[in-house]
Q: What sequence folds into this?
């Protein structure tokens, strides 16, 4: 600490001497012995950094934060878009499969309707059935009447044969 004080005093004296009335006087630092003396290397003097002002620091901080937030938002938006796109693609594929199934069902229904129409043209209706039933009933009634007539005729012949068999002498010869 004493050495720094002496150096400071020497420098102060030298400055006073420069300001004195003898401008031609010689300084100790300009003598030959001082010029040739080796100065120990104590390093380069540290330069002071200029402090960043509050306004400039605020702008730099704002721009840095804004760009970081914007990049994160863009990344999240792109990720959400990819997820939504994948979900939409899956939905479209599922819709395509269900549409194909429905188309197959519609074709089967149309084939069944075509067969049903062909069967409907070949089958009879209730009116046709009731008309045929009435005709069969008339035929059956007619056959029944004829059967009864035939039966009564056979009964009459039986009676005649029976009466003839009781009488031995008849006028009708067979």
A:
């Amino acid at each position: 600490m004493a050495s720094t004080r002496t150096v400071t005093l020497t420098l102060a004296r030298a400055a006073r001497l420069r300001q004195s009335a003898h401008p031609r006087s010689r300084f100790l630092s300009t003598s030959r012995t001082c010029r040739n003396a080796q100065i120990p290397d104590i390093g380069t003097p540290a330069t002071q950094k200029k402090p960043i002002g509050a306004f400039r620091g605020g702008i730099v901080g704002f721009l840095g934060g804004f760009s970081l937030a914007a990049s994160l938002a863009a990344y999240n938006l792109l990720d959400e878009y990819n997820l939504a796109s994948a979900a939409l693609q899956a939905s479209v594929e599922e819709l395509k499969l269900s549409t194909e199934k429905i188309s197959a069902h519609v074709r089967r229904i149309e084939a069944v309707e075509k067969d049903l129409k062909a069967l409907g043209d070949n089958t009879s209706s209730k009116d046709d059935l009731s008309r045929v039933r009435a005709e069969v009933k008339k035929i059956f009634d007619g056959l029944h009447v004829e059967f009864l007539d035939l039966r009564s005729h056979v009964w009459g012949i039986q009676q005649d044969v029976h009466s003839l068999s009781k009488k031995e002498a008849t006028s009708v010869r067979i």
Summary: Residues 55-123 form one domain. Helices lie at 2-19, 32-36, 54-122, 126-166. DSSP finds four helices and no strands in the chain. Residues 103 and 109 are 10 Å apart (CA to CA).
